[in-house]
Write a structure and sequence with these properties.
Length: 283
C-alpha cells in the first residue's frame, strides 16, 4: 500500500516558518501585503481566493482585493495593474487566470512589475526559473511539488523524473525545478509515442495533464513517487487527479491525494513568495 503524501502537514510546516518572518517585517514597520486581482466570479477563483485569504491571515500577510466585473475592459484591467505596480505598500500580486475572453491576457501578464510577480506569470519570472538564477518566483503550484518532496525527505539528485504536461503554468516550470535539483528529466505530452513506457521508467512521476485517468495503471511501477497535480471532476461529480488512484495505491511507494495533495500546499508557497518579496523590497 502506497504512503499517502498529504499536503496539509507540508503547508503547516511552511506556515510555521513564515510566521516569525512576517512578524520580523512588521517589527520593522513593513506590513507584508498581497494584492489579489480577480476579474469576474469564477467558482474556482473564489475557492482559491478563500484559501489564500485564510493562509495569509495565519502567516500575518495583509491582503488587498482588486475586483473587476467579468465585463471589464482592457483599459480597466491595465489601469488596475498599474495601480498595483505603483503602490509601494504592495509586495506581491496574484491575478486569477484565465481572464475573460475579451481581455488580452498576455498583455496583462507582461504589464506586471516582475518584483511583484509572486506566481510566475511574467516572462522575467519564467526566465529566472529556466536560467536557474533564483531572481524570480516560479508558479506556486510548480514549487509546491518541490516543497512536498523536500518535506517527505525525498532526494532528487540522480533520480529519473518524468513530467506529464508541458504548460507554462506547471509542466515546464516544474521540469526546470526538478532539473535544478539534478534529476534526469523526461517531459511527456499528447504527442508522446508511448506514455506508459516513459512513465514506468520514472522514479518521480509528476502528473499535470488535466485529464482524469491520463496516468493509467500501465504508467505505474513499484518504488515510484507520484505527484498528482491534476484537478478534474469525474462523472460522479467528484474531484479527482490525473492518476488512476486505486492502481497507484496498490503499486507505487508514495502518492499525493486529490484533493488534499499538491493543491493544499499552493497557498503556503504563495505566502512564502510574498514574504520573500517583502523582505527584498525592504532591504
Ligand atoms: P494545460 O495547460 O491544459 O496543459 C496540459 C498539458 O498536459 C499539456 O501539455 C498537454 O499536452 C498534456 N496532456 C494532456 N492530456 C494528456 C495525455 N492524455 N497524455 C499526455 N499528456 C497530456 O493544463 P495546466 O494548466 O498545465 O494544468 C494541468 C492540471 O493541473 C489541470 O488539471 C489543472 O486543473 C491542474 N492545476 C492544479 C493546480 C493545483 O494547485 N494543484 C494548480 C493549477 C492547475 P500538449 O501540450 O501536447 O497539449
Amino acid at each position: 500500500m502506497a504512503q499517502l503524501w498529504k499536503g496539509a502537514p507540508v503547508a503547516a510546516a511552511l506556515t510555521q516558518q513564515l510566521i516569525p518572518r512576517a512578524q520580523a517585517l512588521r517589527d520593522r514597520g513593513v506590513i507584508p501585503t498581497l494584492a489579489i486581482l480577480r476579474v469576474g466570479e469564477r467558482p474556482e477563483d473564489l475557492s482559491y481566493e478563500r484559501g489564500a485569504l485564510k493562509r495569509c491571515e495565519k502567516v500575518g500577510i495583509a491582503v488587498r482585493q482588486f475586483l473587476l466585473t467579468a465585463d471589464a475592459s482592457q483599459r480597466d484591467l491595465m489601469e488596475t495593474i498599474e495601480e498595483i505596480n505603483r503602490d509601494e505598500s504592495i509586495h506581491g500580486c496574484l491575478m486569477f487566470r484565465p481572464l475573460p475572453k475579451q481581455l488580452d491576457e498576455q498583455a496583462a501578464c507582461a504589464a506586471f512589475s516582475p518584483a511583484k510577480d509572486v506566481d510566475g506569470i511574467t516572462a522575467g519570472s519564467l526566465a529566472a526559473v529556466f536560467s536557474g538564477s533564483g531572481a524570480g518566483y516560479p508558479p506556486c503550484t510548480a514549487r509546491a511539488c518541490l516543497e512536498i518532496l523536500d518535506y517527505y525527505g525525498y532526494e532528487l539528485k540522480g533520480k529519473r523524473a518524468v513530467v506529464v504536461g508541458r504548460s507554462l503554468v506547471i509542466g515546464k516550470p516544474v521540469s526546470m525545478l526538478l532539473l535544478g535539483r539534478h534529476a534526469t528529466l523526461t517531459i511527456c505530452h499528447t504527442r508522446t509515442a508511448d506514455l506508459a513506457a516513459e512513465c514506468r521508467r520514472a522514479d518521480v512521476l509528476v502528473a499535470a495533464a488535466g485529464k482524469a485517468g491520463a496516468v493509467s495503471a500501465a504508467c505505474l511501477a513499484p518504488g515510484q513517487v507520484v505527484l498528482d497535480v491534476g484537478i478534474n471532476v469525474d462523472e460522479a461529480g467528484n474531484l479527482v487527479g490525473d492518476v488512476d488512484f486505486a492502481a497507484a495505491e496498490a503499486t507505487v511507494e508514495a502518492i499525493t491525494p486529490v484533493p488534499g495533495g499538491v493543491g493544499a500546499v499552493t497557498t503556503s508557497v504563495l505566502a512564502s513568495h510574498v514574504i520573500q518579496a517583502a523582505e527584498k523590497a525592504s532591504r
